[in-house]
Specification:
The structure is a single chain. The protein is built from eleven helices and no strands. The chain is mainly α. The protein has one domain: Up-down Bundle (Glycerol uptake facilitator protein). The protein is globular. Its main location: other. GO terms for molecular function: cell adhesion mediator activity; structural constituent of eye lens; water channel activity.
Length: 289
Amino acid sequence: LYKGDCPPRLGQGGSRDPGTVSIPPAMWELRSASFWRAIFAEFFATLFYVFFGLGSSLRWAPGPLHVLQVALAFGLALATLVQAVGHISGAHVNPAVTFAFLVGSQMSLLRAFCYMAAQLLGAVAGAAVLYSVTPPAVRGNLALNTLHPGVSVGQATMVEIFLTLQFVLCIFATYDERRNGRLGSVALAVGFSLTLGHLFGMYYTGAGMNPARSFAPAILTRNFTNHWVYWVGPIIGGGLGSLLYDFLLFPRLKSVSERLSILKGARPSDPNGQPEVTGEPVELKTQAL
């Protein structure tokens, strides 16, 4: 976990050398260069995801919006980013996905918080760039998520839950390092799952599936009507997807203490119980493809 000097080890008597300073469990991540690379990757990837996704949703000509065009644009954008930065941060690009990994005890609270902050900032930055390069007559509401006139907020929330649930299940299944004989492309599988969600969800809610994607145009247009739907639905859907996969469909055999240790950001250990000492920081396996 340290390059160069090794971290202090426990002595034979079970106590640390009096001259060493104990590092809180989560602090080793803050001292890791790969941790900050992952945070930047989430910012960078979400910026591009929102820029291309929202950009493809703008109306450049009169007439109805082509749902297939928008669905493919979002799906291909995510597939490209999973391929580009998946091995760096896991390419969550979505606070609901990060929350799902947190519920499954596959990342620390600190990392999850930093991921979500980077995703929200990246989304706003992407929407701001799109706003600045788009003619005023075309900008409209920047593809703000809105409910279909005949859809209630309860129905919309349920739709968002189901859309995000299937999406997170696909991510957990394709990212799972325990899955032997993994077939096909992880990036395309995730991209197609997002495309599927848009093909259905755009008729109901505009297919949010991602609080950061919904938050960015709401901030720039100052329109937060029913905005909570696009947080509550995806967050619940992501959490349910995590619980369904990690505790029912393909359980991870971890004790409560192991899960708490991961959430606190404890440093990964080798089988002998000693912290791993390698040239580069160790990242969670679920964050790499």
